[in-house]
Design brief:
Strand content: 25-35%
Helix content: 25-40%
Number of domains: 3
CATH architecture of the largest domain: 3-Layer(aba) Sandwich
Radius of gyration: 26 Å
Largest sheet: 11 strands, mixed
Distance between the termini: 94 Å
Number of strands: 31
CATH class of the largest domain: Alpha Beta
Shape: globular
């Protein structure tokens, strides 16, 4: 009997030890939602949809959900006034008013600080998550565009100021952005003093937003990677349900050791600065940022100035040009950045169109906009990086790029151009455009514009060759002009200007490279919000019944679904011209060469 009791006691002890060794679930949790409705609510009611998700959810007893509303000229449901800052607790499937405050700008640090201070003081818990809801414009533009205050936003410095004052020494478990483009190095660094984890998207978000029932359920019992996995996976499931998962991204970044990443980033940029006089390291950086994943959309329809940081660092580390003068130490610095970011990504999801997204972006001005660059220089968290960008953009000569040879047919049968060595200092990228050739010898309609492929680029000698495959893109059997806006080992993203139902739009599609060959799939219409100055939150796939006009041809998307494919170009002759771009957006065109379409 004593032996049985002893064995039973041992088993109980082992069971208790095992329980204690597991990650401790929070005994209480608080979700603070800072909901700036903006035009997303006044025009489409998206904020109300997410609130209604919360009201329908079975929120665990140990979770407090506190919502602050404002920033919209009209709220679509729940009788939320637009001329007040309102605070609610979600309880018993209802919004219960806590406070009605005087109207204030949701894009102000003071407004956020007041909410954070109130929420963490009145509802203390083991696991507190702050979630900011609205448009996101990334590092320079910030988040939470208050429609009532001229779309004023919370900038990155204001976010930092608000958390410094509102937390008063406390620390958040998570800061999340149900907003576009906020998974940025600069944002993560600013928040690393105040939170353990950042959850945000590198790309634009689907309009439906996160799954709020998942957040409350998971907060009640999970922390760290388990919580991150639930939030990210259920967001992606939501995207899949509406067939908008291709360009979706969401990542969870560990902020607890971000100082290591900061040091490695500074060291890498200092190394590039040390090599700047020879131009090679700086040119290698531009090559790396061109080939890494990029995100968002600017007013022209091209990608915005956000590039995948670990992806760029990895390319930089492996690029021969960056190893000039046998300076292997700089290569190792880039590799360190890549490794540390990979370790800091707790969990991430991304669709096929962004298969090379690693979880954290950085601002890099691939598309010249001096006012935006000046704003970035004010908030850039790295002095070495600030000096590098100033060195590039502060001294603009009258001539930046010139041709040593404006076009010749090489022994390989390809059309080549060669730039002068001095051009390397300001060269951003090299593309080529293919045109139809009219019978009278003039240039016809443009067919396609692409980057010169890596295998045909000799960046060391600035010699570039065009390897055109004779293919164009067709939408419903109608040729469309396609401009390549992003390229990686996994896919190529194109845009085409179309008129959809009488409205000019930017239509994006992607060529996926896989074991089944190349597949062409639509991303959809990417909307740019001129009022807030950033891409709208969502893409709109072309759907059956949409009336499309391209180059004078009008057609309707078939009821069976959209047909988008690559096909042979129709003209018997075509013309090729190379276009080199400098860092200031200027174009430098080569001579034109005519080819027979055999």
């Amino acid at each position: 009997m004593r032996i049985k009791r002893l064995l039973f006691s041992i088993i109980i002890c082992i069971f208790v030890v095992a329980l204690c060794s597991c990650s401790k679930a929070p005994s209480s949790a608080t979700l603070l939602i800072y909901m700036c409705g903006s035009d997303l609510e006044s025009k489409t009611g998206i904020a109300s949809e997410n609130i209604n998700e919360l009201l329908s959810a079975n929120i665990p007893d140990n979770v407090n959900v506190i919502i602050e509303t404002g920033g919209s000229t009209k709220w679509q449901s729940n009788n939320i006034p637009s001329d007040k800052i309102m605070r609610y607790v979600v309880k018993d499937h209802r919004l219960q008013e806590i406070a009605s405050l005087d109207d204030a700008c949701m894009g102000s640090a003071d407004t956020l600080q007041s909410f954070v201070e109130f929420g963490t003081t009145a509802y203390p818990s083991d696991n507190t998550m702050l979630l900011l809801w609205d448009h996101g414009g990334g590092t320079v533009k910030g988040a939470c565009f208050d429609e009532r205050y001229n779309n004023d936003t919370l900038t990155v410095p204001e976010l930092k100021e608000a958390l410094e004052g509102g937390l008063q020494g406390k620390r958040l478990s998570v800061v999340g952005f149900d907003a576009c483009l906020m998974a940025d190095y600069e944002v993560a660094k600013a928040l690393s003093d105040y939170a353990d984890m950042l959850i945000a998207s590198q790309n634009y978000e689907v309009g439906l937003g996160w799954d709020y029932s998942t957040i409350t359920r998971s907060l009640s019992k999970k922390t760290g990677e388990d919580l991150a996995k639930d939030i990210c996976d259920d967001y992606m499931d939501k995207c899949v349900e509406v067939s908008k998962d291709g360009a979706a991204t969401l990542s969870a970044i560990d902020l607890t050791n971000f100082a290591e990443i900061t040091k490695a980033f500074d060291d890498m940029m200092a190394g590039i600065n040390n090599e700047m006089e020879g131009n090679k390291a700086r040119l290698a950086l531009r090559i790396a940022t061109k080939n890494a994943a990029s995100f968002g959309a600017n007013s022209t329809g091209h990608m915005d100035n956000f590039v995948d940081l670990a992806g760029a660092a990895s390319i930089l580390a492996d690029h021969n040009m960056y190893k000039s003068n046998e300076q292997e130490i700089y290569t190792s610095k880039a590799k360190t950045v890549d490794n540390l970011i990979s370790e800091a990504i707790i969990y991430k999801v991304n669709g096929d169109f962004k298969a090379n997204a690693t979880g954290l972006s950085v601002y890099y001005p691939s598309h010249y906009h001096m006012d935006e660059i000046r704003e970035y220089l004010k908030i850039c968290p790295s002095e070495a990086y600030r000096q590098l960008i100033m060195g590039i953009f502060n001294d603009i000569p009258q001539t930046t790029i010139s041709y040593q040879n404006r076009g010749y047919i090489g022994d390989d049968g390809k059309f080549h151009v060669t730039l002068t060595p001095e051009s390397s200092r300001y060269l951003l990228n090299v593309t080529y455009t293919v045109y139809e050739q009219n019978e009278d010898g003039s240039l016809g309609n443009p067919i396609i514009s692409k980057y010169v492929e890596n295998g045909d680029s000799d960046w060391e000698n600035l010699d570039f060759a065009v390897n055109f495959d004779g293919k164009c893109f067709e939408l419903e059997k109608n040729p469309i002009m396609a401009t390549q806006v992003d390229v990686s080992a996994n896919n190529e993203i194109y845009m085409s200007k179309v008129i959809r139902n009488g409205v000019p739009e930017t239509f994006r599609f992607v060529v996926l490279k896989g074991i089944l060959g190349k597949q062409v799939r639509q991303v959809g219409v990417v909307l740019f919000n001129d009022e807030v100055g950033t891409a709208s939150r969502d893409v709109l796939p072309l759907k059956p019944g949409d009336k499309i006009e391209v180059d004078g041809n009008t057609f309707t998307i078939d009821i069976k679904g959209l047909t988008l494919k690559k096909s042979d170009i129709h003209s018997s002759k075509y013309a090729v011209q190379v276009v080199a771009y400098d860092m200031f957006g200027n174009e430098f065109k080569s001579d034109v060469s005519i080819f027979d379409n055999k």
